[in-house]
Amino acid sequence: MDVREAVARRSGAGGSRALRSRWRTATMAAGWAFPADWSLAEVDDVCRAVLEGGDASGELYRLGGARAEAGAGLAETLLDLAALHAVLAEPPGSTGIVSPSVDAIPARMLRSTALGWGDVMSRRAAECAADNPLTGLATSAYLNTRLREVYAEARAAGRQEHVLVVVALDLTRTSGWSRVVAMTLLADALKEVFDAGETVASIGSSTACVLLRRDRHLARALTNLRVLTADRLAVDPHVAPTGPVRVWLEELPPSCEDAVALVAGLGR
Q1: I need a labelling partner for 112 at 20 to 30 A (CA). Which of 84, 93, 104, 147 fits?
Q2: Strands 246-251 and 199-202
Q3: Quick one: three-class SS letters along 64-101?
Q4: What does the pLDDT look like over 130-141, one tens digit per residue?
Q5: Please, what is the end-to-end C-alpha distance for the chain in angstroms?
Q6: Residue 162: beta bridge partners?
Q7: CA separation for the pair 261, 202 (Å, rounded)
Q8: Residue 32 phi/psi, 5° resolution?
Q9: Where are the alpha helices (DSSP H) in 129-243?
């Protein structure tokens, strides 16, 4: 039985509030670990959607994501979904105890909720990782951590000695895998030029940056980077349409919060 059929069987029952109450009761009885965490705005959205008899896939996807954001595991999230399905499958006006079964959840409900949960967890895992698996460059999240350390160091020393080197490729004339290849070649050039402990990070689909201490060798390093990147890109015919590499310096703003915002803007 799908959601629409279940709703049809529930015609004449109470409204969204009644469904929400029955759903919550069934979930708690099934063993939801933290009752105070169950109520979410997305729960109400799902109730309204299923009572209207339409496709609730979008609402269930968002509920799955919200559960992941709130720290609920996949097993707990699907048990909650099973409770909803069990309530919906009850005859109109039923007030008895339902028995949620994850195995009974219709495929569409299960898929939408699990995808929402999984997408959030995948994003969070990527944000927590220190390195981009394709390029080997540090992630933006790691760069933000290094910025906080650099600003703490600057406060203690009474001066800011670090600067950002920003590198951007024009990938408007490339597509698909060629974009990944171009960024991988750029990463190789960056790691060859800056190999003395600098933080080299990917901050966008076509942009990378280096957080480093300013010294007398910086100008030469920038020149070497321009030449080496151009040489690397010219070797692969698939990335030949890549526009000329742009390399420039960005002074760090007064606060760490401004620096994090600057990096986010540069990566767009």
Answers
A1: 93
A2: unpaired
A3: HHHHHHCCCCHHHHHHHHHHHHHHHHCCCCCCCCCCCC
A4: 777 677 888 888
A5: 45
A6: 213
A7: 15
A8: -60, 130
A9: 140-157, 177-193, 218-235
- Could you tell me the residue ranges of all domains in the chain? 3-128, 140-266
* Average pLDDT of the segment spanning 216-224: 91
Q: Which residue has the higher pLDDT, 93 or 244?
A: 244
Q: Please check the confidence at residue 229 and state whether its pLDDT lies above 50.
A: yes
Question: How far is the C-alpha of 237 from the C-alpha of 23, rounded, in Å?
Answer: 59
Beta strands in 15-88 (DSSP E): none
Q: What is the mean pLDDT of residues 241-251?
A: 81
Report the C-alpha gap between 142 and 161 in whole angstroms: 19
Q: Which fold has domain 140-266?
A: Alpha-Beta Plaits (3.30.70)
Nearest to 48 by CA among 82, 7, 78: 7
124 touches 20 (CB < 8 A) = no
Query: What does 216-265 look like in DSSP terms, one character per residue?
Result: TTHHHHHHHHHHHHHHHHHH-GGGTTPPPPEEEEEEPPSSHHHHHHHHHH
> In the predicted model, what is the mean pLDDT of residues 83-112?
86
- The encoded tokens of residue 164 equal 């950002």
Coil, helix or strand at residue 81:
helix
Give CA–CA dist 124/201, Å, rounded: 18
Distance CA 28, CA 47 (A): 17
Phi, psi of 236, rounded to the nearest 5 degrees: -95, 115
The CA dihedral of 261, 212, 198, 201, to the nearest 10 degrees, is 20
Q: Is the pTM of this model over 0.85?
A: no
Q: Which are the contacts of 85, defined by CB distance < 8 A and separation ≥ 6? A: 6, 100, 104, 105, 106, 109
Residues in the chain: 268
